[in-house]
Amino acid sequence: MSRAFTPKVVTANALLEGDVIYLTADDRWSRLHHEAELIEDEAHAQLRLLHAQSQRASAVGPYLADARPGPDGPEPVHFREAFRTRGPSNYRHGKQVEQSHV
Known about the structure:
Strand order of the largest sheet: 3-2-1-4-5
Number of helices: 3
Number of domains: 1
Helix content: 10-25%
Order of helices and strands: EEEHEEHH
Radius of gyration: 14 Å
Shape: globular
Distance between the termini: 44 Å
Low-confidence stretches: none
Largest sheet: 5 strands, antiparallel
Mean pLDDT: 89
């Protein structure tokens, strides 16, 4: 018996800056996880991944990451993905500074 499909988001790294990015439903790349398209169908997830892989001028290493619906949009399921939403861990700037004021 096959397992139920876990919802996904498409994530990658921005080609020039290296920031973590997420594919949105309207085909933009966003640096905000909650703006990502939450994909709840396995076939659609594979199509979205193929689309992301074709975006070589803007995204590196796209893959599907498990996610769950949240009150403000998709939320990461695994520690690794939650960690990636916070940005680089070697110094405080960007997302880390912005989140420390919240």
